[in-house]
Amino acid sequence: MQNKTARKNHSAVCDVCGQKSTRVRYVTRSYGKGGRLLVIENIPVVSCSHCGASYVTAETLHEIERIKRHRASFAKKRPVAVAVFA
Asked: Is the pLDDT of residue 50 over 80?
């Protein structure tokens, strides 16, 4: 996987509307539940301020799938607090 600095050089053109109004945000997402829960941090998401679209690139999606497949090699066990939105 490329380093974070290299990933910031994503094209500024939105893949949805074609406008030059995108930026890359880094988010945390969870996959699975219970004993199979996996949290992946620093996922680059492209956001367009013109049309409101948010998406991940194909490269990012492939990397997420690779991390999920090889979770034992990448993941570190940490306790996590869980809250329910009421």
From this structure: yes
